[in-house]
Design a protein that fits this description.
Helix 8 packs antiparallel against helix 15. The protein has helices at about 5-20, 30-45, 60-65, 110-125, 140-150, 165-180, 220-235, 235-260, 265-285, 290-305, 315-320, 325-345, 350-370, 370-380, 385-395, and strands at about 45-55, 85-90, 100-105, 130-135, 155-160, 185-190, 200-205, 210-215. The longest helix has 27 residues, at about 235-260. The protein has 2 domains: about 45-245, 3-Layer(aba) Sandwich (Rossmann fold), CATH 3.40.50.300; about 260-380, no CATH class. The two termini are about 45 Å apart. The chain is elongated, with a radius of gyration of 30 Å. By secondary structure, the chain is of the alpha/beta class. The strands form 2 sheets. The protein has a 6-stranded mixed sheet with strand order 2-3-1-4-5-6, sandwiched between helices. Bound molecules: guanosine-5'-diphosphate (GDP) and magnesium ion (MG). Magnesium ion binds near residues 59 and 80.
Length: about 425
């Protein structure tokens, strides 16, 4: 059976080869560079985990405790983590993945559009998101979670600082977060990344009693165990899903630039085809003109697809799709043409009978020009099997951790 990683690789390679023909275009350089990075990413066996949450929830502490090293600065003051920082973690022998852990500033510290964009970029690049909280959800945390969920990524909710709560309190917090009206359905993992120091009294043989403060060992088993399980069972699918989603965005960006770059051609071609259709139908005898109409429509669409280098299958998808396809306006155009034929011969007869349908056919094709780019782009974006692979991954049962971005509650039940 073909693995999701192999499937993603095939799609990515098709896409890469296809756009190589325009590799020397300056305006497409950033997208092609990103394509090449995605290819590297797919071959790297590097799994990316980003941590999000408000300030002081213990995000940096959680990552330190996961790796067992104090590599990130931890502190009670706001702004200890200023920029996203990443570190590599080799989880365990026997797991063929390296993990990139990405620490981020608190979401309530992120100010300004550029910083917010950076947070979104980190979230998009991650294969798995850890959202760290340290008590029941606040309104801000809930909103942030809803936004993150729109990325269609697996999110583990990490309830940190469990050393500060009794077992009953922890159960109550979990129940609060899991209540159905929040609609989150997230997996909650309870940890203590950096437990509060406790007083330890030592009774010495000579009768002395000393008191010291000692920090208990972190309690990370639940989170570490879950991450290792994901790495063993789902990492390939999650990486494939992430790469394909980013490819989807890249492809949409490339296509947007294609339409901009070829705007002049599209306009000239649409005008030329409309004129040809108008004249052809105006001059052709009845019967032949009805055959000519779909042929010229097809020629116009084919010309657009070839010039814009839209992937094969775009036209089939755009014409064949039941809902958003182009067949509906094309059928309307044909019906209009038939009507115009009838009206033309009834009103004017003879030579005049061809002019009216010719005019209607030309204008209706030109008007279709407003609709076609949008529909073609939509079907081209999912070309090379991208849409099918994404649907198989999102809709399939391969991902136990996947969360659907649909069915979110409207308004805030907090
Ligand atoms: N009691 C307790 N305090 C913690 C725990 N984890 C982190 N902290 C404290 O929370 C504060 C913020 O930690 P930090 O990792 O810098 O938070 P960040 O801003 O979310 O990255 C620090 O003073 C940590 O010592 C925990 O498990 N238990
Ligand atoms: Mg921090």
């Amino acid at each position: 059976m073909i693995t999701p990683l192999a499937q993603a690789e095939t799609v990515l390679n098709h896409c890469w080869e296809h756009w190589q023909a325009v590799a020397n275009r300056a305006d497409l350089k950033p997208e092609l560079r990103s394509l090449s990075e995605l290819r590297k990413r797919l071959g790297s066996r590097l799994f990316s985990i980003a941590v999000f949450g408000l300030v002081n929830r213990g995000k940096s502490a959680v990552l330190n405790a996961l790796t067992g090293e104090t590599r990130l600065k931890v502190g009670p003051l706001n702004g200890v983590t200023q920029q996203p920082q990443s570190m590599l973690w080799r989880p365990e022998s026997g797991i063929p993945w390296r993990v990139r852990l990405i620490d981020t500033p608190g979401l309530n510290e992120v100010e300004g559009e550029a910083r917010e964009q950076l947070a979104w970029d980190v979230a998009r690049s991650a294969d798995l998101i850890l959202f760290v909280i340290a008590a029941d959800l606040t309104q801000l945390e809930y909103q942030a979670l809803l936004e993150l969920r729109t990325l269609h990524k697996p999110i583990l909710l990490v309830l940190n600082k469990c050393d500060l709560y009794s077992a009953e309190d922890l159960e109550a917090i979990r129940a609060q977060i899991s209540r159905p009206q929040l609609g989150l359905g997230l997996e909650i993992l309870t940890v203590a990344a950096c437990p509060k120091p406790v007083k330890v009294r030592t009774h010495w043989p000579d009768g002395r009693i000393t008191t010291d403060w000692e920090r208990p060992a972190p309690q990370m088993d639940a989170l570490r165990g879950r991450i290792l399980q994901i790495l063993q069972t789902e990492a390939g699918s999650l990486l494939a899903l992430n790469v394909l989603k980013r490819l989807d965005r890249l492809q949409a960006q490339i296509l947007r630039k294609q339409w901009q770059h070829h705007a002049g051609f599209v306009d000239r071609w649409s005008k030329a085809c409309s004129l040809a259709k108008g004249l052809g139908i105006g001059l052709a005898p009845l019967g032949l003109d009805l055959l000519l109409a779909p042929l010229l429509d097809g020629l116009w669409l084919l010309g657009l697809c070839l010039r814009l280098r839209l992937p094969w299958g775009t036209l089939r998808g755009a014409l064949g799709s039941r809902q958003e396809g182009l067949w509906r306006p094309l059928v309307v155009n044909s019906a209009l043409l038939l009507l115009a034929e009838g009206l033309g011969s009834w009103l004017w007869g003879g030579w005049g009978s061809g002019l009216f349908p010719g005019l209607v056919a030309g204008v209706s094709l030109y008007r279709l020009g407003d609709l076609a780019p949008q529909v073609l782009t939509q079907f081209a974006t999912g070309g090379f099997g991208l849409a099918a692979s994404l649907n198989a991954l999102i809709g399939g049962d391969k991902l136990a951790t996947k969360q659907s971005a649909t069915a979110l509650p409207v308004g805030s039940p907090l």
